Amino acid sequence: MSARPQYYTRTAQILHWLMAAIFITAWFIGFYSGNFLNYDTDGAFKGNVITLHKNIATPILFLIVIRIFWRYTHPTPALPENMSAPMKKMAHVIHWILYLILLALPITGCLFSWSAGHPAPVLYLFNLPTLIEPNPQITAIVKPIHVYLSWFAGLLIVVHILAALKHHFVDRDNVLRSMTSQQTKD
């Protein structure tokens, strides 16, 4: 049996940082449009901002599927030996919760758009096929789910970032470097 790698593969690193940039950007745009814009006063501008949010966020649906497949087929670096077993377990559980939320967020976002009679665009290139008809009852269900999931995901991302920084600056271990550096030989 081969030893676990010290670093994530370059593909895993690219997927991680690309998804981080997309999620954080989409999260702030969604937060801005949901909390600072009003259809009564900002109508067309709010619509454009929401369209931007959707165009940036929908690729996460594709990327998370690729990322889960990649994670399943490629070994990940071992966590530091000085981490307790419960902390290691919690780290794994939080990662899988993040994966599930990053799958659920674009799905609920698409359901929210479709049920409100709007498309789910991807990078201004095409719209995802509409899978449900406009339905205010569904909108009333999926809108709060999408909003609460986004808040929970944002919280988990902050915890994830703080944990990575703690590992790097306090524990001085390889956890953050494993996602930013590459082994010299493969």
UniProtKB/TrEMBL annotation:
Report the Gene3D superfamilies cross-referenced here.
Transmembrane di-heme cytochromes, Chain C (1.20.950.20)
The lineage's top-level taxon is: Bacteria
Domain named Cytochrome b561 bacterial/Ni-hydrogenase is located at: 8-181
Name the cofactor(s). Answer: heme b
Q: Which UniProt keywords apply?
A: Cell membrane, Electron transport, Heme, Iron, Membrane, Metal-binding, Transmembrane, Transmembrane helix, Transport
Instruction: State where it is primarily located.
Output: membrane
What InterPro entries does UniProt report for this protein, alphabetically? Cyt_b561_bac/Ni-Hgenase (IPR011577), Cytochrome_b561_oxidase (IPR052168), Di-haem_cyt_TM (IPR016174)
Subcellular location, in the record's words? Cell membrane
Membrane topology of this protein: Multi-pass membrane protein
Q: Which SUPFAM superfamilies match?
A: Transmembrane di-heme cytochromes (SSF81342)
Residues annotated as transmembrane: 12-32, 52-72, 93-116, 145-165
Report the sequence similarity comment from the record: Belongs to the cytochrome b561 family.
| PANTHER family named among the record's database cross-references | CYTOCHROME B561, CYTOCHROME B561 HOMOLOG 2
Q: What is this protein called?
A: Cytochrome b
